[in-house]
Amino acid sequence: MHVDGRTVIVTGASSGIGRATAHEFARRRAHVVLASRSRDKLDALAGELADYPGRRLVVPTDVTDRLAVEALVRRTVEEFDGVDVLVNNAGVGLFAPIATGSLDNMHHLFNVNFWGAVHCIQAIVPYMRRQRRGHIVNVSSVAGKVATPYLGAYSATKFALTAVSNALRSELAGTGIGVSTIYPGLTDTSFQENMLREVDVPDLPAYLRTAGPAAVGRRIVQAVRWDLRDTYVTLADFAAVNAYPLAPGLADWALRLFWLGSGARLGVEGTPFEAIGELAEPFAADAPEPPSESP
Ligand SMILES: NC(=O)c1ccc[n+]([C@@H]2O[C@H](COP(=O)([O-])OP(=O)(O)OC[C@H]3O[C@@H](n4cnc5c(N)ncnc54)[C@H](OP(=O)(O)O)[C@@H]3O)[C@@H](O)[C@H]2O)c1
Questions:
Q1: Quick one: which of 40, 126, 186, 213 is 20 to 30 A from 15 by CA?
Q2: Between 220 and 249, whose confidence is greater?
Q3: How many CB atoms lie within 10 A of CB 116?
Q4: 150 included as an active-site residue
Q5: Which domains does the chain carry?
Q6: Catalytic residue among 127, 154, 183, 232
Q7: b/e 40-77 (16+ beta carbons within 10 angstroms → b)
Q8: pLDDT recorded at residue 209
Q9: What confidence tens digit (pLDDT) does each residue in 123-158 have?
């Protein structure tokens, strides 16, 4: 689908990848609807995009609120007489152990990353079916293909989004509505700073953030234009995801060392193996006592 003159809703448009995606669509003369919770940031972005052709509409929206999402889509259709593209990008991260992590945080993550996307899909598909035209982009993650320690809940939301994309694509085949899934790796945005943290995992070094948000935004536009199915941003991300199933045990071991084993980064001493032991102790201390065995 060409994007010139099309109407595009971007969720999570106030920051990072969503913001860059709004820029990329606006550069290509699309009408862009900016949605997230922060009205001030969206207004500022709309001002930045004013020089590009096409119109902008700011609709502050919390994607966890189904009625607000329905109102976002209705308002878009009223303003632009239709809606062509949905970019399901709003998302939040969480560093937490699965076994002892806060259920409230995990529920929140699913509410934003999974249910937020489903709310948008359910609100928009009826309009796209009527038009017999549309494209839905779900922003998953490399973490939606490979799970790492303390990112299990986040990964689960992104694995779920991958499943939603694949099923939806089949369900909509022949309707004129395409579905793409984007798998960014570490991207240089405020995502890490905005993450909920239950364990003290230090920020990853900048050199590991191999892509900028503009590169992800460009891939999202390409996915819409060429109806791409699974879309990676860097070759390294593609290679990592496809190498994982070849030796998952070895890859898990390497990821464990990478995330948990660098004693220097985590402020503990010793070899990576000793560091893992030391790091496990505070979490073990927090864990509830197992029930005592009766004599
Ligand atoms: N950065 C990475 O390394 C990376 C890698 C792979 C995938 N991703 C994915 O890319 C997407 C964008 O992340 P980013 O890197 O751009 O992070 P970011 O800079 O933290 O942006 C997150 C966006 O989500 C919005 N958001 C959060 N909760 C929301 C809610 N309840 N309703 C509506 N909007 C909400 C935020 O806006 P408000 O606060 O204004 O609501 C913000 O615009 C996420 O889905 C993330 O999982 C990121």
A1: 126
A2: 220
A3: 27
A4: no
A5: 7-237 (3.40.50.720), 244-287 (no CATH)
A6: 154
A7: ebbeebbeebeebebbbbbbbbbbbeeebbeebbeebb
A8: 65
A9: 999 999 999 999 999 999 999 999 988 999 999 999
